[in-house]
Amino acid sequence: MNKDKLIETVARLVSPPKGILAIDESLSTCNKRFEKLGVPTTEEKRREYRELLITAPEMEKYISGYILFDETIRQSAKDGKSFTSILQAKGIDIGIKVDQGLIDFSSHPGEKITQGLEGLSSRLKEYKNMGATFAKWRVVYSIGENTPSGDCMKENAVILVKYALICQELDIVPIIEPEVLIDGDHTIEKCYEITAGNFDVLFSELRDSNVFISGIVLKTSMVLSGKDAEDKSSSAEKVAQMTLRCLKEHVPEHIGGIVFLSGGQGDEEAAMNLNTMHQMGSLPWPLSFSYGRAIQNPAFQSWAKSPADISGAQALLLAAAKNNSQASIGQYKK
User: Fold this and answer.
1) In DSSP terms, which residues pair with 82 in a beta bridge?
2) Which intervals of the chain form a coiled coil (predicted)?
3) Count of domains in the chain?
């Protein structure tokens, strides 16, 4: 493990005013999005859309890294240039989603653990040879009457530790993503309780296993009430206050950086919540974004409607990236 190299990569990823763009949707998720807007669900159409995202001019002003999917990291633009070489020429770090999705957690109805450890080291070595400098692994928790259980949080934490150690041994920065889903009718206070408890379990496992905390990035959901909650408590001030309190009290100050997933929030909502956090005083760690749909949405809808208007869609993509870049330093205005 080269700790200096890990620290350097983390610093690039969370250097203000930049964040990370996630374009790592699985084939099934990507195809569902295409189907909703009448786009053919072919590999060529997926490649065409991702070329739009990767070749958009000036994205390097606002985006430090792209998280790719296995299919995407192997693809090229129409002119034959590999997607990875295009990103490298822009000075954008290449990330790769390496988990292989969710499976049922045995004897725990409604709970999931994440698979993909088998063969991970060899896959990461291949991705590293293709230019990847960081990776991502996602686990999810649903808030219900009896979920998430301590067993589920513990099992996923153990899996995340194994993933992180394999990454760091290869000098690849691991993004650790424990997502508390917005689905449900839970209160914002309940979300705080679950998120805080999960952080305690996760960072205890990371410390006990000697994961290099300064060489990881935490990708987390904000503290939010459930989308079906009667009292959504969704003012940006409330979300920002509770999210920052949770992070300050339960995440080590020496972590490399923290980025948010949008997690079902509206595009404007995700930007405003992040912006508000940066208007509440100094923070002990770099805090930015790692959004997917919250940046892609306008461009995707434009492209689906007018696939020949690439420049128009890219302009929308750049504007969304700029908005969130400004939010990451507290300078975003509606």
Assistant:
1) 76
2) none
3) 1
Residue 334 lies in a domain: no
Question: Residue 332: inside a domain, yes or no?
Answer: no
Distance between CA atoms of residues 245 and 226, nearest Å: 19
Instruction: Quickly count: other Cβ atoms within 10 Å of residue 279's Cβ.
Output: 14
The pTM score is 0.95
| Band (233; pLDDT cuts 50, 70, 90) | low
CB distance 289 to 259 below 8 Å: yes
Catalytic residues: 177, 219
Residue 223 belongs to some domain of the structure: yes
Torsion-angle region of 201 (φ positive above 0: left; ψ -120 to 50: alpha; else: beta): alpha
Name the token pair of 296: 């892609």
Q: Is 171 left (phi over 0), alpha (psi -120 to 50) or beta?
A: left
**pLDDT tens-digit map of 300-318:** 999 999 999 999 999 999 9
Residue 146 tokens, joined: 């009896």
Domain that holds residue 301: 3-327
